[in-house]
Amino acid sequence: MRNSEGLVLFFTLCLYGSLSAAGINGNYYADQNREVFLLPKSAAMAGSDMTVTRSALPLSNPASLPADSIREIALAYAGYFQNSYSTSALSYIGPVDNFSSIGVSASYILVPGIEFHDDTIVPVNVPLKTSSDFFFRISYGRKVLQFGNQYVLSAGAAINTERRNLIGWTSYGIGADAGVNISCLFREIGSVAAAGLVVENLTTSLTHWSSTYKEYAYPHMRLGLGWQQEIQYIYGRLSISYLSPDLFSNEGINQYGSESLDGTNDVESPVFKRVATNPLMFFSGGRGGFEYTIMNAISFRMGIQQGSKSFGGGLCLFHNHAGFDFAYLDHVLAPIYKLSVNFKWF
Is residue 258 one of the residues assigned to a domain? Predict the structure, then answer.
């Protein structure tokens, strides 16, 4: 192991050890809200392109930012479970110079109309409360090595801040992510291959609820692969992507098994498995998706994650200077719909 890798490992172990010694609790689900901010393009592919696609939102790989020099602003909205709550996000990506790019995003979860009362007897007019979650993220990515126009290695980092407002409680959080990305251009056959590795909560995501209670989110590591193929005869482009489960197995419940309640009928039940001891989770716990684009104008997308399917599409306008994307996500409670518009310029 090189000295730099050893220092990073030593620093991480010391950091988590000091948090535990200080009485700060670890929580598998402290950072789960970041998942809901996937743009429709990525959500339609089940988030399988998360480590290899440019995005400035909370769940993304900052090392993918310098893959293009185009500036982009995106505005997204999603309604969950018949609008029981909604999410909104505004993001910007733009180059700093010929080798690096920056990303900035502000994301918001709104949970309105919560019935709340302290009495044991329900009053006639139940007061309604609102909860919310606000994320702000700034990320930076830079090309580290480049061999001609064929191989590019990039690295990046991001700072995340959060303000969570529950009924009677407010918390503030901060954390950092890091990632690397490598892309290979095969010009002869019109293909691009990419691989990305991202570590979330590299320095933990620490949430301060009160003077007596604090919690931190465990780190996650995800590996993503992508392949893009130009199909000249029909002016199309096919993209296929894969995202592994958390290689640290720090997501809590991460699989669904079955158990028998009466000895005859099996029911679905949540379980926890570690990737290190269950290698088949690379397939059963991973995400897969594909996108097919015709003449750089119309896109069709589909994704799958542990049996849950997602669909979507996109439309490019004004010579790819503007676009519209949507996604439909299947869920046992109610379908989820996501919409976004984007504007691009050089």
Answer: no
Domains: count for the chain: 1
Beta strands in the chain (DSSP E): 25-27, 71-80, 85-95, 100-115, 128-147, 151-166, 169-186, 191-200, 205-208, 214-217, 220-231, 236-243, 255-260, 266-271, 287-294, 298-305, 308-317, 322-329, 336-345
Question: Are 41 and 301 a contacting pair, CB within 8 Å?
Answer: yes
C-alpha distances out from residue 66 to 70, 97, 188, 242, Å = 9, 9, 23, 21
The letter for the amino acid at 9 is L
Report if residue 263 sits inside a domain: no
Task: For residue range 140-157, list pLDDT tens digits in order.
Answer: 999 999 987 789 999 999
Task: Give me the phi and psi of 36, to 5 degrees please.
Answer: -75, -10
> pTM for this one?
0.86
- Kindly list the distances between the CA atom of residue 161 and the CA atoms of 107, 139, 142, 224, in Å, as whole numbers in the listed order: 11, 12, 22, 25
Q: Does residue 252 fall inside a structural domain?
A: no
Question: Tokens standing for 8?
Answer: 């990073």
* Strand pairing category for 287-294 and 205-208: unpaired
Q: Is residue 53 part of a domain?
A: yes
Q: What is the pLDDT of residues 186-213, one digit of tens each?
A: 988 889 999 999 999 876 667 777 777 7
Pairing between β-strand 236-243 and β-strand 220-231 as defined by DSSP bridges: antiparallel
Range of 137's domain?
3-223
What is the radius of gyration, based on Cα positions, of the chain?
Answer: 21
- Per-residue model confidence as pLDDT tens digits over 219-268: 999 999 999 999 887 789 999 999 999 999 888 777 776 665 556 666 66
